[in-house]
Amino acid sequence: MSLVTLLPFIVLIGAMFLMTRSAKKKQQQALEMRNQMQPGSGVRTIGGMYATVKEVNEDTVLLDAGPGVELIFAKNSIGAVLSDDEYNRIVHGIEHDLKDEVGFVPDDASSLTESDDSAAGAPDDKPVDLGKKDQAGEPAGDAVTARAKTDDEPKKTDGDTEGK
Fold first, then answer.
1. How far apart are CA 13 and CA 15, in angstroms?
2. For residue 152, with 0-12 CB atoms within 10 Å meaning exposed, 13-18 middle and 19 or more buried, which class applies?
3. Which residues are within 8 A (CB) of 47 and not within 5 positions of it... i.e. 6 or more apart?
4. Does pTM top 0.85 for this prediction?
5. CA 53, 55, 57, 62 torsion: positive or negative?
6. What DSSP character marks residue 133?
7. What string of DSSP letters covers 88-122?
8. Per-residue pLDDT band at 73 (split at 50, 70, 90)
9. Cβ(78)–Cβ(37) under 8 Å?
10. 14 pLDDT exceeds 60?
């Protein structure tokens, strides 16, 4: 057999090897994550339930899902072990005070564009001249008023009316 005939089979076997290798690596990382669980850490199950670990056994985990609610789950059903900050942010709505941090970015851009000498709530009523000119050479604002005057005049028709 020639090398050209064997090349597709070699490529296929190589691709299968790489796929199984990455899957094994992900399984190993998930196993390490589940083994790092300790009582008191926050977790998310694969079903999307957030709870606190109360007790860790060989194959099971006792979770505290709320006051008086204790659930037993298989270790394989734990989807993620969360950091304390992330768990408190999701479950209790507690977030760090971002204003104390150095790289604070506001939610809107209005605080970035306002200056101290301008009034925040007083908009300018005068129109902004963008430098556009009408075809006749007059500013665009005058063209709008001229167009408004022609709209007030009755329009000429061909003589066809619907009132016949």
1. 5
2. exposed
3. 77
4. no
5. negative
6. B
7. IIIII-----GGGSTT---SSSHHHH--SSS-SS-
8. very high
9. yes
10. yes
Q: Answer left, alpha or beta for residue 68, where phi above 0 means left and psi between -120 and 50 means alpha.
A: left
Alpha-carbon distance values, 94 to 11, 64, 67, 85, 87 (Å): 51, 19, 19, 8, 9
Q: Are 43 and 50 in contact (CB under 8 A)?
A: yes
The more confident residue out of 160 and 41 is: 41
Judge contact between 69 and 50, C-beta under 8 A: no
Kindly report, residue by residue over 107-130, the tens digit of the pLDDT: 677 766 665 555 545 555 777 777
Distances (CA, A) of 1 to 6, 58, 73, 92: 7, 53, 55, 67
> Which is nearest to 76 in space by CA: 16, 34, 134?
34
Would you state the structure tokens that stand for residue 44, as one six-digit string?
């998310």
**Helix (H), strand (E) at residue 25:** helix 3-35
Q: CB atoms < 10 A from the CB of 134, how many?
A: 14
Task: Report d(CA 47, CA 42) in Å as an integer.
Answer: 15
- In the three-class reduction of DSSP (H, G, I as helix; E, B as strand; rest coil), residue 132 is classed as coil
SS3 9: helix
Residue 136 confidence (pLDDT): 60
